[in-house]
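Recap from last week: sequence in, structure out.
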Amino acid sequence: MRSLVVIGGGPRAAGLLERIAAQSPSLELAVHVVDPYPPGAGRVWRHAQSPLLRMNSMAEDVTVFTDSSFDGLGPVRPGPSLAEWGDVDPTSFPSRQVQSKYLAWFFDHVKESLPPNITVSVHEARALKVVGDWVWLDSGESLRADVLVLALGHLDAEPEPEHRKLAEHAVEHGLVYVPPLYSADADLSEVAGDVVLRGFGLAFIDLMVLLTEGRGGRYVRSDGELRYVPSGLEPRLFVGSRRGVPYHSKTGYRLQGTRPSLPHFFTAEALKGRSLDFRGDVWPLMAKEIAWGYYHELFTGHPGLVRMPFVEFATAFTALPWYSREMRALEALAIPDPADHIDFELLDRPLTGLTFASAEEFQEHLRAYVEADVARRSDPRHSADLGAFLALLSVYGQMAQVMPHDGWWHGYFSYLASGPPPDRLEELLALSRAGIVRFVGADMWVEAVDGAFLAGSPTTPDVVRANGLIEARLPSHSLSRTADPVLRSLRAVGDVSEDDAGLVRVTPEGRLVDERGEVDPVRFAVGPYTTGKAFAAFARPNTNAPAFRQNDVLARELLKVLGD
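Predicted structure tokens:
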């Protein structure tokens, strides 16, 4: 009997097993799944986390199953979305515990769908090292692997020099410092007083929840406005970032017009065989694609807001480069209200050029900004934003086939498309009005001096003095700084290598590439820590999800190597 060892038991591993099951292989195969966390959900989506933490996707937008949009070689095996499986409101944002149960059910469903010639054993242990064909676990077990797959998910990293210095400063002066890590894993028990949070994305939202409602505070609605009633156990949170504003709210409506065919302009085929510069070649075409999704919805869903038929606009739009005076002239001619034009630069840096005489003046400005964002993302009149969102998703899927993800682009995508549910921003506003959250501004700086943490921004002249600093973001992983023992063991003997960004080098099929540039015939890796692109392990229905196609290719390759 052949053996396949998969290190990591989260949704990526479950999806890979589903694609193996879909091939109906005939070989005798023993599959070993190694993960200290429950299979299916894995570490990030484990049930053992605060019930207050929620997904930032609506229930109807989450599936682990292929559907009719799937164009991989393997067969389509449809199944319920999270909304259908859990019988929950399709437009709700469920808790991560609900998603955990869905993923655990999916893993069990996949196990049951495997033919009798394939067995699956789950080892609730941590893999410590790989030596030759053997995988050693912290349980004392060792597993022989004819083929090995590293499906490690998001990984921890050793602290960067800056973080080590900040931690040393905190220890020396009796302060609190929380380095980049997953919010659900953070020890926040010592966080009190005035605390700076560096980062304004989803990690901040989680930390905000855990340090306020998680400490006994509650929200009440009075005269239509949400108010926060403190428990008295909350710290005061000073938040800032490069942009100085939170991620945009998720939209709360559906398309009002016809669904665009995406991608329209930005395809891997259109850029094939060219030497590409991201800013000069790739981004202008990406911007045009996102604008196409936006204007497709504006014209087909809101004809009263435009001056010409969509066919006429689309013909002119198609012929013009995105960054051209002619394109700006077309927008001005076709769309009377400048507020209905899409402006990527303003979206990226909404505080550019703005300064305020006092921190208080800035608090009022940013509350108005967040209120306007929540209102816009809740009003179907602005459903063109959803058209842009769908185009963003298609661009993200194509980008993986074109070139490695640019760091700015990945952050920009997350900022526009991967923000919190709108009610989380309402809670942020309530916390701001209650004085629990204070906004610092754009291009926030932090210094460890005078027995404290100082923070400020060019946005206001005020400087914050705090006794705590929390890095409100995920760790930046690289192979040279990895905290994962398996990758470290492979790196120690040169069996794994990294690219310039610190990502583990793999071939298009997912095989590991060693330090000599040689391809490993039986070891594979998949996930965000590899050069094999970072695709979400689950996806929106009917989007021909890249992760499902990647799993399909990998499953086929694994079975070929195993000798089916």
